[in-house]
Write a structure and sequence with these properties.
It is a single chain. The protein is mainly alpha-helical. The chain folds into 2 domains: 17-93, Winged helix-like DNA-binding domain superfamily/Winged helix DNA-binding domain (Arc Repressor Mutant, subunit A, Orthogonal Bundle), CATH 1.10.10.10; 110-259, GntR ligand-binding domain-like (Four Helix Bundle (Hemerythrin (Met), subunit A)). It is 66% helix and 3% strand. It contains 11 helices and 2 strands, in the order H-H-H-E-E-H-H-H-H-H-H-H-H. Strand 1 and strand 2 (85-88) form a beta hairpin. The longest helix is centred in the C-terminal third of the chain and has 34 residues, at 226-259. Residues 1-22 have low confidence and may be disordered.
Length: 260
């Protein structure tokens, strides 16, 4: 067993504010406060500063502050009650499936444990979704998958170019299920894939080698073979997890060398 006290840990840089709902002023406030909560700088039960004090400290209007509080409450991070004010909620109430909370946690936690949880979630959802897509995909859905697959091939090992059609490929499968409840998971898949892409930048193997596995998924859906689609997607995710772990090892080795 590895010694958790000495094993190197990999962290990712904090996500850009532009990644979130933070394109608006109150969204920037959501990002700032949300990161502080998830990082533990504002622990559960901690009373938040007054609306007036916090809006002054962050340099925003009280209106923007109120809007941010509403968004954070909807994500399960905080609660406001008469007399007791606004406090950080216990972690058990946080909506970890919210894309913002997912990404904040990714930036705040060691990636090793997070990778395991993300791929466990993806393996629960995406193989089943691929099977449903094989059963229900329309010609338009299959054409969208083919376009995404072609664009991935054209991108080769250019991670930035590869990421866009790769994301489109996986999201198209979710939408092709014909299940509107599953459609809401597309944003979760986007966050998980974005994490994979950021880590895979350090993978010396690049991205091109994942094309055959994507092709097997595409062909199974094209044939409307539900069992083959499920199995192909699970194999693709297994390979993806291996790639991410190899990239994590490369990052850890690079930091160890720089630390000498």
């Amino acid at each position: 067993m590895r010694n958790s006290k000495t094993a190197p840990r990999t962290y990712l840089p904090a996500p850009s504010k532009r990644t979130f709902s933070a394109r608006s002023l109150h969204g920037q406030v959501v990002h700032e406060i949300g990161m502080q909560i998830v990082e533990g700088k504002l622990p559960p039960g901690e009373p938040l500063p007054s609306e007036e004090a916090w809006s002054a400290g962050l340099g925003v209007s009280r209106t923007a502050m109120r809007e941010a509080i509403k968004v954070l409450a909807a994500k399960g991070l905080i609660e406001s009650r008469p007399k007791t004010g606004t406090r950080v909620r216990a972690r058990e109430y946080w909506n970890f499936l919210d894309p913002d909370v997912l990404a904040w946690r990714l930036a705040a936690a060691p990636v090793e444990s997070y990778v395991r949880e993300v791929f466990e979630l993806r393996k629960m959802v995406e193989p089943f979704a691929a099977g449903l897509a094989a059963a229900h995909a329309t010609r338009a859905d299959i054409a969208a998958l083919e376009r995404a697959f072609k664009a991935m091939g054209e991108a080769g090992d250019d991670n930035e170019r590869f990421a866009v059609p790769d994301l489109a490929f996986h999201q198209t499968i979710i939408r092709a299920t014909g299940n509107e409840l599953l459609h809401s998971l597309a944003a979760i898949i986007e966050t998980a894939l974005t994490m994979s892409f950021r880590l895979s930048d350090a993978n010396p193997a690049g991205q091109r080698h994942s094309l055959p596995a994507h092709g097997v998924v595409l062909e199974a859906i094209r044939r409307h073979d539900t069992n083959a689609a499920r199995e192909a997607m699970l194999a693709l995710l297994d390979n993806s997890e291996t790639d991410v772990r190899q990239a994590m090892s490369a990052l850890a080795r690079g930091r160890t060398r720089r630390g000498r």
